[in-house]
Amino acid sequence: MKKLVSALLALCMVFSLSVSFAEESAIRVATLKGPTGMAMAGIMENNDGSYEFTLAGAPEELSGRIIKGEVDIAAVPANLASVLYNKTEGEVKLLAIISRSMLYLMEKGETIQSPADLEGKTIVMAGQGSTPEYVLNYVLKQNNVNATVEFKSEHAEVITLAASGMADIVVVPEPNVTSLQMKDASFRVALNLGDCFDEATKAAGYEDARLSMSAVVVRKSLLESNPDAVNAFLARLEESILWATNEETQAACAEAIVKHQIIPALPVATKALPNCNLTFVSGADMEAQLTPMLQVLFDANPASVGGKMPAADFYVVPQVPAAE
Q1: What is the dihedral of CA 230, 231, 235, 241, to 10 degrees?
Q2: Residues of the domain holding 149
Q3: DSSP 274-302
Q4: What is the mean pLDDT of residues 77-101?
Q5: DSSP summary character for residue 315
Q6: CATH number of the domain that residue 287 is part of
Q7: What is residue 204's three-state secondary structure?
Q8: Is the pTM of this model over 0.70?
Q9: 160 near 132, Cβ under 8 Å?
Q10: Side-chain half-sphere of 48: how many Cα atoms within 13 Å?
Q11: What's the chain's Rg over C-alpha atoms?
């Protein structure tokens, strides 16, 4: 009997130590609620304890924790990745782009078919002093369009104004696009600002530029101390995004998005998911596509990328072995 008790106690100690070790070794992952977090839904749904997830409602909630080293990997706005790199003097690096543009210009009517049709119009939007403003201004400037932009404090306020008939042309991201159309079906997506931005940058000589809204960053310390864990996370991230973008699995993904509180309402998650333009771009392609976008933002406001353009080591690009 004593031997049995001793064996059970020993087993409990081993189990306790194993759990403790697993908790200590779990990679701390943070993401924003909304479209940015959608890319993580598959990892969260199939988390085997390898990751400890934290969700935040706004980028400001994540920035401090990332800078302090309280987060190992995070999904953030793409320009914030550059800001974090500069603020930490290179201790935060870019792993992947996970979403293209989710910014849309919506109209109550059928008059706007191209940026040129915005001449003389009034556009209502949120995001003053951030990427949405700089993207819209760049598109208007490159198309020689003069329009009035009225800024509101939040996307929710823009939707309320539009739904109440006080704004006919608005710029909002998903899932706000879906929310507005549920309130007033007469609003339609007139322009995908990502497409407009890509066309404008190509015309300006940035051939590979793509508007990228969300990205994943990693702390340099984790990248150097445990590259295998980082690579494993990247593989899971790519699988998660494929799960979210495959028509056959999007319904299950939408349910996971609501389950993990990334978006609260299933109808909104289901309808918005296909329009969030989730993607997975890493390595040299990531650098080629994002650098021109950051340059556009820097030209508009250097602070939007952290005061200066990030150096080449901002991008985690696998090194190709030299030929023997």
Answers
A1: 50
A2: 103-203
A3: GGS-EEEEEHHHHHHHHHHHHHHHHHH-G
A4: 96
A5: B
A6: 3.40.190.10
A7: coil
A8: yes
A9: no
A10: 3
A11: 22
